[in-house]
Specification:
- The protein is mainly α and 186 residues long.
- It has a single domain, classed as Jann2411-like domain (Jann2411-like fold, Orthogonal Bundle), CATH 1.10.3300.
- The strands form two sheets. The chain has a two-stranded antiparallel sheet. A two-stranded antiparallel sheet has the order 3-4.
- A hairpin with an 8-residue loop joins strand 3 and strand 4.
- Helix 1 crosses helix 5 and helix 4 packs antiparallel against helix 5.
- The longest helix has 21 residues.
- It is globular.
C-alpha cells in the first residue's frame, strides 16, 4: 500500500489525537485547554488554522471521540459508515496544494475550515484509504492491558501488537520472562 507524505502526516495526527483521550480516571485529557490544542496544531504543522478558541477545543474533542470509535470498530462496513459521516460533516473539498516547502499533495478540507473540520477531512480520508485497500485491520489498539493507545500497523506482515515495542512490548516480554523463571524455580 502506497502511503504518501500527506497521508502519513494525517495518520500521525489522528493517532496522536486519539491518544490524547482520557482513559477512565487514571489518564488525564491530553487536550485540557486551548493552549494544548495550539501545541497539537503546531506540532503537526497544520496549515490555514486561525486563532483557536474554546469552541475549537470542544469540536476537536468531539471529532476525537469519533476517530476513537473508528479505531475500536472491527467491522469494515461499520468503520466505513463512521468515516463517511465524519468526512461528510466536515464539508470535504479536495484540492491540490504545494505549500511550506512540500511538493504537490491533496488537502481535503475547505479553505478557512475549522481545525476540527481540517482533522475530520484530512484524517478521515487517510483512514478511508485503509478501508478501501482492505487494510482496516491495521488501525489498532495496543495489546498491552494497561495501555490501549491507538496506532497504525505499517509492518509488512501486519504483525505489530504494541504501540511501542520498546515500552509496552518490552515490558510485557520481561514480565512473561520473569513469570517463567519464577515458575521454573518452583
Amino acid at each position: 500500500m502506497l502511503i504518501t507524505h500527506d497521508t502519513r502526516c494525517a495518520l500521525d495526527a489522528v493517532v496522536d489525537l486519539v491518544n490524547t483521550s482520557p482513559e477512565g480516571d487514571e489518564t488525564p485529557d491530553g487536550l485540557p485547554d486551548v493552549a494544548a490544542l495550539a501545541d497539537f496544531v503546531r506540532n503537526h504543522e497544520f496549515s490555514d488554522v486561525g486563532v483557536l478558541s474554546e469552541f475549537d477545543l470542544s469540536a476537536v474533542r468531539k471529532v476525537r471521540g469519533r476517530f476513537a470509535a473508528i479505531f475500536a470498530e472491527p467491522d469494515a462496513r461499520t468503520a466505513a459508515g463512521l468515516i463517511n459521516e465524519l468526512v461528510a460533516a466536515a464539508g470535504t473539498t479536495p484540492r491540490l496544494t504545494d505549500h511550506d516547502g512540500y511538493d504537490w499533495h491533496v488537502h481535503y478540507f475547505a479553505p478557512g475550515a475549522s481545525v476540527a473540520d481540517h482533522l475530520a477531512a484530512d484524517c478521515g480520508m487517510a483512514l478511508a484509504f485503509f478501508v478501501v485497500a482492505g487494510e482496516q485491520e491495521r488501525l489498532r489498539r495496543c495489546e498491552a492491558p494497561d495501555c490501549r493507545h491507538a496506532f497504525v500497523d505499517l509492518s509488512r506482515n501486519r504483525s505489530r501488537r504494541y504501540c511501542d515495542s520498546r515500552t509496552c512490548g518490552n515490558r510485557l516480554h520481561v514480565a512473561a520472562y520473569r513469570a517463567r523463571r519464577k515458575e521454573a524455580a518452583g
